[in-house]
Amino acid sequence: MIGFSGGKDSTMLLQVVWRALLKIPDGTRNRPIYVVCNDTLVENPKIVSFINRTLERVQKAAAEQSLPITVHRTTPRLEDTFWVNLLGRGYPAPNNSFRWCTERLKINPTTRFIQEKISEKGEAIILLGTRSQESQTRARSMKRHSMKTGRLRKHLLPNAFVFAPLQDITTNEVWQYLMQIDAPWGGKHKELQTLYRNANTDGDCPLVIDETTPSCGQSRFGCWVCTVVARDKSMEGLVVNGDDWMEPLMEFRDVLINTRNDRAYREMRRRTDSPFKEDDPNTWGPYTPESRAKFLTMLLRAQREIQLSQGEDMQLISHQELVAIQLTWYRDGIFNYKVADIYNQINEQQIDMSKHEEKFKREEQLLREVCADNPDDFNLIQELLTLQKNKSLMKVKRNLKDELERHIERHLAKTKRSEESIHA
């Protein structure tokens, strides 16, 4: 498996492997080679466009040259996407203390693909374009996880090993190689060089396969919504050098950063009723319904503005994500804001989600009828369902039984106090 991010390092890696394969006689190229590219669905749109064109050429050229290379894109599951979590469930924008995005958007999708292929083949060697010169942290990580052979390091998954052929290559050597040797899948690397020059960057996000893989730095290509860094220098560079259509993306990202720790944007209680501290935003609750609706409005306006200048196929959020967000709002008891209403106010092409609303209204009405004699039970059941759903979605089912029992005990205690007060 070759981790391909579209950057200079992974491009050199793929090219070196490609040229090595061409030296092997056609009849003996029996081992399948997978070019794995992870798409978080919130990557820089300009970089995504460039990567897609490159992968199309790679797949076509591999077939023409009889190479056992196939391209595979990994993406997060719908319930794990950035927008379903931030706009749907109200997760606060990620930061260094609560970086919930890396595992959901990067590690899990690629891990599922690796596990699938190991199940089929028995083992896998994952080639990454990581280099020691990229940073001291990366160099220490590579050294710490390397095996005695100096070539492979064990992956967290059984029967998986990681190899970094370029670990001792310098940045100058990477560019020298790419500028002197054309891509074996066709074309030169001038567009890639121009991207780096315009973005004022010399780094790129590697394929993240586990928690030991270094994440992106401040000047690397990556997710345009990244709020872990204070500034996205690569996007700033692209805007300054002519891609001013991305300004709405920068503005939206800045809003997420500036409002993350604003108490007015967050719920007063956490989903699990766990304690929170007024001076610690990481212990606060999710975004309020008003905040989620506001952010969705801003995102759709940014998308529409970009579509008018770049074409209708430029999407920041998919229709499937919009539906998932609406369903999540219904599950959270949010009926004052409708995704379809927000979308239709901004776009000429209208969408209709009334069937989903009718379904949840019927469920809610049925539950209210069942609990007609005990209205408080309706709220209790809604809370229990929400608690169970959140535990399932977060894949943290530990202590679920205890938390359900605590909710029921608090409800019974509250009911008893109310009855005693009435009798008194």
UniProtKB/TrEMBL annotation:
Family annotation (Gene3D superfamilies): HUPs
Chain coiled-coil ranges: 339-366, 390-421
Domain of life (superkingdom): Bacteria
Keywords assigned: Coiled coil
Annotated Phosphoadenosine phosphosulphate reductase domain residues: 2-227
InterPro entries attached to this UniProt entry: PAPS_reduct_dom (IPR002500), Rossmann-like_a/b/a_fold (IPR014729), Sulfate_adenylyltrnsfr_sub2 (IPR050128), SulphurTrfase_DndC (IPR017598)
Transmembrane feature ranges: none
Protein name from the UniProt record: DNA phosphorothioation system sulfurtransferase DndC
